[in-house]
Automatic annotation (TrEMBL):
Family annotation (SUPFAM superfamilies): NagB/RpiA/CoA transferase-like
Keyword vocabulary terms for this entry: Transferase
Record-linked InterPro entries: 3-oxoacid_CoA-transf_B, CoA_trans_fam_I, NagB/RpiA_transferase-like
Lineage: Bacteria, Bacillati, Bacillota, Bacilli, Bacillales
Designated name of the protein: 3-oxoacid CoA-transferase subunit B
Annotated family: Belongs to the 3-oxoacid CoA-transferase subunit B family.
Length: 218
């Protein structure tokens, strides 16, 4: 059985969340991998805030065109029928509520669905980018993140200590170990990675969560 990296596992699981007919914006990092795992049987329109609707999978060497990039400046492909537009028009789509789902990375997520994903205190800040607009305008916010930082610090916390992007905004949280839903600002554990237990998950998750009675393994 082929094994995949933890980041790819998260992206693959996130791709399953995308509904047919959706317009979806993929953030920088793990979210960009989601395009490679989309169900080809679904009609999904990927949007990037620098001005492209109809983003395709990552390009092969022959497909590489450095003028076709996403908001993270990574090369992408464009699907047949894709459209190009200015950044201002792109943000009008976002702010106008025309993006169904946004998939973003995170620095911290609180147990009430607060999101921090743009600044680490004491480090240089490049800017918030489109994150605040995206989470405010989208109908659904899916967070894809590794459960802990590179230093082993938990990312899923009781309260965010980093600058908050938006409050009570997260719909679904997917890590390599678990899938959580946020219901009335409470975290509900819906899925657990194979080989993990609730008790083991609690050891690396300071946030309080409810275990769904229909908890499944993924």
């Amino acid at each position: 059985m082929e094994t995949i990296s933890s980041k790819a596992k998260i992206a693959k699981r996130a791709a399953e969340e995308i509904k047919n007919g959706s317009i979806v914006n993929l953030g920088i990092g793990i979210p960009t991998l989601v395009a490679d795992y989309l169900d080809t049987g679904k009609e999904v329109y990927l949007h990037t805030e620098n001005g492209l609707l109809g983003v395709g999978p990552s390009p092969s060497e022959k497909q590489l065109d450095l003028e076709i990039i996403n908001a993270g400046k990574l090369p992408v492909t464009a699907q047949l029928g894709a459209s190009y537009f200015s950044s201002s028009e792109s943000f009008a789509m976002i702010r106008g509520g025309h993006v169904n789902t946004v998939i973003l990375g995170a620095l911290q997520i609180s147990e009430t669905g607060n999101l921090a994903n743009w600044a680490v205190p004491g480090k240089d800040i490049l800017g918030v980018g489109g994150a605040m607009d995206l989470v405010a305008g989208a109908k659904e916010v899916i967070i894809t993140t590794q459960h802990c930082s590179k230093d082993g610090e938990p990312k899923i916390v009781s309260e965010c200590t980093y600058p908050v992007t938006a409050k009570n905004i997260v719909s679904t949280l997917i890590s390599e170990y678990a899938v959580f839903r946020f219901v009335e600002n409470k975290m509900v554990l819906e899925e657990l990675a194979d080989g993990w237990t609730v008790e083991k998950l609690k050891e690396i998750t300071p946030a309080k969560f409810i275990v769904s009675p229909t908890l499944s393994i993924y």
